[in-house]
Design brief:
With 274 residues, this protein is an alpha/beta fold. The strands form 2 sheets. It has a 9-stranded mixed beta sheet, covered by helices on one side. It has a 3-stranded mixed beta sheet with strand order 1-3-2, covered by helices on one side.
């Protein structure tokens, strides 16, 4: 009787084993050639670089490329010697060793100088061309600053600096920091007002002791005689001051009795007496 619980044994198929592949030996010749070429090229570059560096050192030390002539702009406030000292250059320096950007950065530290150009002309010349700022007013912004003809505050006043410029007040350090664009526009408007006053023949810049700016209102002038406020507001300075000029001759004899003059109207002037 057949035993049904007996497991059949599987006879594995006889597989034909493939012979192992024969590996080709590595051809080291092209690899060694490539490595030798790379090493050779690196060595050549190193030799050329070292030689170039040595040549640069020799050329830079030669007397044929030494600084002999320093050409500078003729300035009013900064002397030639001060300019050359500030630039940090002197005759005998290597022409190749001069760092023109560094020279310009040194010159830029002087607040009077702008539009700086430094050029090198081989074999022996360095040219320094600069323009000086022109102060047109003094602005009190917490401390006194010179204001140039572009409306830029460029230098704080020190002992010995001239004070005989129109005085602008009312702009604070906080306004400069919080609203630089707005204060810049205000300073440019102040320059326009100064220009209008300079052109005046009856009521002019000589009659003014102070130009005050208020962010909410605009401009108020204070007269030299009696310190009387002359209210202008913003804009149309020429028309407003022209109306004042028609009566200013009569008002000059009454200045001590005036409280203020208000020009901030289209077609009239208000003169308030004390």
């Amino acid at each position: 009787m057949r035993d049904l619980h007996t497991k059949k044994q599987r006879i594995p198929n006889n597989r034909v084993k493939k012979p192992p592949k024969q590996r080709k030996p590595i051809n080291w010749t092209p690899i060694l050639k490539w490595l030798s070429r790379g090493i050779g090229a690196s060595a050549v570059c190193a030799v050329v670089g070292f030689g170039g560096w040595k040549a640069y050192g020799v050329v830079s030390r030669t007397t044929l490329l030494r600084l002999e002539t320093i050409e500078v702009s003729q300035l009013k406030r900064v002397s030639r010697d001060e300019l050359i000292t500030l630039a940090g250059v002197r005759p005998g320096d290597s022409m190749l060793g001069l760092d023109l950007k560094t020279v310009m950065a040194r010159l830029g530290k002087n607040p009077w100088l702008e539009q700086i150009q430094v050029r090198r002309y081989f074999p022996h010349t360095l040219s320094i061309t600069v323009a000086e700022r022109t102060p047109v007013a003094v602005a009190n912004v917490g401390c006194l600053y010179y204001l140039d003809d572009k409306g830029v505050l460029f230098k704080s006043l020190a002992e010995g600096d001239r004070l005989d410029y129109p005085l602008i007040t009312g702009i604070t350090e906080e306004e400069l920091a919080q609203d630089p664009k707005g204060t810049q526009e205000a300073l440019k408007s102040a320059l326009q007002l100064i220009g209008t006053l300079k052109a005046g023949s009856v009521f002019s810049l000589a009659d003014i002791s102070e130009i005050h700016y208020s962010r909410g209102y605009g401009f108020t002038l204070f007269t030299m005689q009696g310190g009387i406020p002359v209210k202008l507001g913003n804009g149309e300075f020429g028309d407003k001051l022209a109306r004042l000029s028609r009566i200013y001759g009569d008002l000059k004899t009454q200045m001590q009795a005036l409280d203020y003059i208000d020009l901030d109207y289209i077609d009239k002037i208000i003169v308030k007496k004390v």
